[in-house]
Design goal:
Elements: E1 16-21, H1 35-43, E2 47-52, H2 58-62, E3 66-69, H3 78-97, E4 101-105, H4 114-121, E5 126-128, E6 131-135, E7 141-144, E8 147-155, E9 157-158, E10 169-172, E11 182-184, E12 190-194, E13 199-203, E14 217-224, E15 227-232, H5 251-254, H6 256-269, H7 326-335, E16 342-344, E17 347-349
Parallel strand pairs: 1-2, 1-3, 3-4, 4-15
Antiparallel strand pairs: 5-11, 6-13, 7-8, 8-10, 9-12, 12-14, 14-15, 16-17
Amino acid sequence: MIQHSHPLPAGLRGRAILGICASGAAAEARFAVDPDYQRRLEDAGVCVSQAYYEQITPELLAAQDLVFLTGFPKTDAPEYAEAVLRDKAPMLDAFVKNGGGLLVFVDDHYARLFETLNRLLAPYGAEVLCELLYDKNRSNAGEWPSSPEIATLLTRNINHPLAEGIESLRLPNGWQSGIWPLKFHSADWQTVVSGESTVESRVLWQENVATYPSAPPLCGVREWGSGRVGIFPVHPTFCIGNGYHRRWGGSFFHDPDSDRFLSNLLEWLGAKSRRTESARPLCLIAKDQTMNWFQPIPAADQPIQYPAHKGIFGLRSNLSGGSHSVDELCAAARGGAWHRRMGKADRRVRAGQQRGFQRPARRGFCGAK
């Protein structure tokens, strides 16, 4: 069990919190709240429940003070996503307008989340940008303590009453499993956390500055009807989802400020609840879907994977608008010192004298066998 430097806020005692995750093949995170963090919340007097998106009902929501969303359906589960947006998003909206709290996490994977999630966020006047974060101040860069291949971003740009006393946050900063900048289309949004003045956002897979040349918003909250909405665009596997996973080693919760920030955010968002229904803990997700990190998952139950295509070599370049042919891109890749077997259809051509992969001499290409 992770040792923490402070107790959870007293304002969470007696609250009912519901975590939502996707089901079946659409599920990449197989539970909404980390089991150890759930026990910690329950020890602090919080009623914790979990359900799938399709199980959301007005009756279930009426027994909650706060709902948080993980694993929002992505573009490769279009029917599931459409059903959630059509049938369940209005229920969540009504819940918030009646005093509930809604917290949205952003667990993108290969840029498949933004289209569907931003449709959910559009009525609230916000969107999550598919842009990477770069800090020109290298002293703010770091490594995730238990997983050094994951870069981190340090920010002290924290300005909101809910974060009073929190001096800094060190956040994961990887394009598949990090944090993404926010864009607000309503003045009602309050920025809670921003990158520092040396942080800029850039177009994915490119190097030109995109929306923010400085201090991109990294967490925001707003009032909505009688309730509150918040977006913390960090991948939830680092914190509430499975922050205790052996790979992360509880790093998010080891840091006092990060640990306090998450619990304060939960407390603040649920503070205006007008719940009258009695709460009892529910676990509506399938027990065999709860992740067991020490047991392989049967292939039929694994998340959706991209299909493999024999003999295809894919390239993406920021040197053109997508107009170059495969042959032209392969020729440019060979000129950039890629040593990889390349091919087209069933015809394969050796490039160079090695079968192994070497780092290219120029930037702008991304390839896969």
